[in-house]
């Protein structure tokens, strides 16, 4: 099943850190430490457990690997990327949205690596290949960015998951919003077959 089956609300939260809102939202990465009712505990690399309050209707998204050939002119994609000296970006990961869905369109700071950016836009013009990987241009309302996707970069799309998949030891990624000194979220992303989400 492809992630076009997800609700519009879940899609709008998919990797959408609105410009200017970085101080109230963040990506929480790690493995599930606990799940007690609607409270999810995520253990980060440093061993710290972050508590996230899940919405009553919280959903699970499974990140399913797909081939780079799924990206073509007109595709709407998002990519965490590292800015290059020539003004282009080098992808760290790519996620492909279904036709008609444009979430988080534009560019903003990202937190997967120091200095990284998230760019969401429509593939414009020709997609080319060379020794460095696939090259394309992403267009968005405020401009465009030339992007290189190295051959070893993970490319995924979102598929629907089940709450039963969220259990201790499972690698997760959560886009959380600050709330009363804590964090809240409406969805939890996991990788396929236990893989860590690439974001």
Overview of the molecule:
The chain is mainly β and 199 residues long. The protein folds into 2 domains: 3-63 and 157-194, OB fold (Dihydrolipoamide Acetyltransferase, E2P) (Beta Barrel), CATH 2.40.50.320; 68-154, no CATH class. The protein has 1 helix and 12 strands. It has one helix at residues 8-13, and strands spanning 25-36, 39-43, 49-65, 76-83, 89-96, 106-109, 117-130, 133-140, 143-149, 155-160, 171-179, 182-191. Strands 1, 2, 3, 4, 5, 6, 7, 8, 9, 10, 11 and 12 form a 12-stranded mixed β-sheet that branches. The longest helix has 6 residues, at 8-13. Residues 1-14 and 16-22 have low confidence and may be disordered. It comes from Labrys monachus. Residues 1-21 form the signal peptide. Keywords: Signal. This is DUF5666 domain-containing protein. Residues 99-120 are annotated as: Disordered.
Structural key phrases:
about 200 residues; mainly beta; OB fold (Dihydrolipoamide Acetyltransferase, E2P); twelve-stranded mixed beta sheet; 1 helix; 12 strands; about 55% strand; elongated; signal; DUF5666 domain-containing protein
